[in-house]
Task: inverse folding
């Protein structure tokens, strides 16, 4: 099966039951998205998807969390586990992929998605907003135990992404340190955290964050 973009998704700020602050986690399919680097030129914070809103810029967005990708196959797994029909964008992802092993990606891996070049930076860390949005019992624990979080991506070449655009892995570092490994390190595996830190494969901001936890 060829790897493609099944859906491109964006969202506006909206209330989430149980939370005081509105969130942009509720994303819906759109025809296309314009992707750019939310670096200093654009204020250094926020989403890499133009028009996609973020409620808490302290914890979300920025260069290493510019775009979020989740495999449709992972949504289907959770659909079976929860007995729900989970729509594209349900996890707050900007890209819902098909036929692409998002959670097997190595840190630093680069994808050509249509005209855009994206770089894998790390996992999604489940939070209270995600739990409230999903409204599933023990959601953070269940999501953590599953350990397949999708991937946050940096934008290396900006452009437009549309549904059915092909996804091509154009660079794989070969160090074998994957997004799920980074996630386990983030959630308390100190030995694995030291491996990642010593390998020097993480973006600087993620390296410093993980080092502070160790």
Result:
């Amino acid at each position: 099966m060829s790897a493609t973009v099944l859906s491109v998704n964006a969202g506006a700020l909206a209330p989430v039951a149980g939370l005081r602050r509105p969130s942009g986690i509720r994303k819906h399919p759109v025809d296309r998205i314009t992707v750019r680097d939310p670096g200093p030129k654009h204020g250094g914070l926020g989403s890499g998807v133009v028009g996609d809103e973020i409620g808490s810029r302290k914890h979300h967005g920025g260069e290493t969390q510019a775009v979020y990708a989740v495999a449709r196959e992972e949504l289907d797994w959770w659909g079976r586990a929860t007995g729900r029909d989970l729509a594209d964008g349900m996890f707050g992802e900007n890209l819902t992929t098909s036929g692409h092993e998002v959670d097997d990606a190595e840190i630093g891996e680069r994808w050509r998605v249509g005209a855009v070049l994206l770089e894998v930076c790390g996992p999604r860390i489940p939070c209270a907003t995600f739990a409230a949005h999903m409204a599933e019992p023990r959601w953070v624990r269940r999501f953590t135990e599953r350990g397949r979080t999708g991937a946050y991506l940096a934008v290396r070449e900006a452009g437009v992404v549309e549904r059915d655009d092909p996804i091509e892995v154009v660079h794989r570092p070969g160090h074998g340190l994957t997004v799920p490994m980074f996630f386990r390190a983030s959630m308390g595996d100190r030995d694995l955290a030291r491996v990642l830190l010593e390998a020097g494969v993480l973006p600087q901001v993620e390296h410093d964050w993980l080092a502070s936890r160790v």
